[in-house]
Specification:
Elements lengths: L7 H21 L11 H8 L16 H6 L18 H13 L10 H17 L5 E5 L3 H16 L11 E5 L5 H8 L7 E4 L9 H13 L4 E7 L11 H10 L3 E6 L20 E5 L1 H4 L11 E5 L1
Parallel strand pairs: 2-3, 2-4, 4-5, 5-6
Antiparallel strand pairs: 1-7, 6-7
Helix pairs in contact: 6-7
């Protein structure tokens, strides 16, 4: 057998070893410290080593216990970074997806994967009252917001051919840090973000929003979009979405709802989100609230109505 090949028997043996380590970890979660007793020096000592010149074979499994010992236990006791308690079944799906090794760029290159993606996005959209929306699964909420704002830019200030032009996006002072980063990447720039004050409940002040849009237009500037937050990271505040949607519609602006943290709450009363405009997007992170595994699992979705 060629050096880079692995027999079905060898793969099965390795898979059993990984499955055993994973089962041991899941079974010990309730006993593990949320933050492991480790340091930068200790992790460097454990893992910094020269690249092996030859394959390790089954010995590659020897580090799994050490890796787990230096990992944070993602349980309900872990509050920072919006990391949910990952569902172990999702890890099995990750394994099978890696084995299939599909190029999920188009149906012709990954028929089953693309169809599953479309179906799951449709399920999520319908669950939060956004039937008719389509979209994609992404690697994180920040990328979902970037995709949404790219759509907003192309719909209101096209830049793919001639380059970005000066334009403005509005959001509350509590908006996630991925929004200014996205505008920087899209060529709009951080100065193109208008941060609007919040009310006593840390929600976007819609009166101040309307005033800012009117003032910018009076000075010849070009507003293109509003970003509303459905569950801010600091307080969980939800902006007055219906009123923000009305303002977006009245001003012919794209509406993006960053619901990476709080959008699943709409499953309780999905009818309340039916007022989304025909030009709108939503970012939804199932890692935070639906227990999808974090890391390489493609959990958030950016959806749009046609």
């Amino acid at each position: 057998m060629r050096p880079l090949e692995i027999s079905p028997e060898q793969f099965e043996s390795l898979a059993h070893g990984v499955a055993g380590a994973a089962s041991d970890f899941v079974g010990s979660l309730d006993r593990r410290r949320t933050v492991p007793s480790t340091s930068g020096a200790q992790t460097s000592k454990a893992f910094d080593r020269p690249a092996p010149e030859e394959g390790l074979g089954d010995a590659v499994l020897d580090d799994l216990e050490t890796i787990a010992a230096h990992a944070r236990a993602s349980t309900g006791r872990l509050f920072p970074y919006v990391v949910g308690s990952g569902e172990p079944v999702g890890a099995l799906a990750d394994l099978f997806a890696s084995i299939l090794n599909q190029n999920v760029t188009a149906w012709r290159s990954a028929p089953s994967a693309v169809t599953v993606e479309r179906t799951v996005v449709g399920w999520l959209a319908e669950a939060i009252g956004c039937s008719g929306f389509s979209g994609n699964l992404t690697s994180g909420g920040s990328l979902a917001n970037l995709m949404a704002l790219a759509m907003a830019r192309e719909a209101r200030a096209p830049a793919n051919d001639a380059g970005a032009q000066p334009c403005l996006v509005y959001a509350s002072e509590e908006v996630h840090m991925s929004i200014p980063k996205a505008l920087a990447l899209l060529g709009i720039g951080r100065n193109g973000l208008r941060l609007i004050r919040t009310d006593s409940a840390f929600r976007l002040d819609t009166g101040a929003l309307e005033d800012a849009i009117a003032l910018d237009r009076a000075h010849g500037r070009q507003p293109i979009a509003i970003v509303a937050s459905a569950g801010t990271i600091m307080t969980g505040a939800v902006d007055p979405l219906s009123r923000v949607a009305e303002i977006a519609h009245a001003n012919d602006l794209w509406l993006h709802v960053d619901g990476a943290y709080g959008a699943p709450a709409a499953m309780v009363e999905p009818a309340r989100t039916n007022g989304s405009t025909s030009r709108s997007t939503a970012a939804f992170c199932s890692t935070a609230t639906l227990r999808s595994p974090d890391g390489r699992s493609p959990t958030p979705a950016t959806t749009r109505r046609h």
